[in-house]
Amino acid sequence: MGCQKVILETDAVALKQAIISDLYDYSSLGVLFKEIRAVLQSAFQSCKVETCPRACNISAHCLAAHGVCMERKSYQIWLDPFPSHVKKLVAGESSLPG
């Protein structure tokens, strides 16, 4: 897609730490975290990882849950128009008081 500068958001503080530091490199998933860092460094000019409480981004949580339910090794790309379930998620979130 040509993106060179990205910001990744997660509601998991430990995941952020695992991606931006070597704190979890000796854990059972350490190899995965090292690979994530290598891919992010080689694929993007800059990449920031931020934490955001789940309540502030319900749409992202629901989309991640959708991804977990997908068949193994399958993927979906949505550029435009977005599927109706995505539009409903975002529309519902934007109407929340806040």
UniProtKB/TrEMBL annotation:
GO terms for molecular function: nucleic acid binding; RNA-DNA hybrid ribonuclease activity. Signal peptide: none annotated. It holds the Pfam family RVT_3. Residues 2-66 form the RNase H type-1 domain. PANTHER family: BNAC02G40300D PROTEIN, OS07G0513450 PROTEIN. This is RNase H type-1 domain-containing protein. It comes from Triticum aestivum.
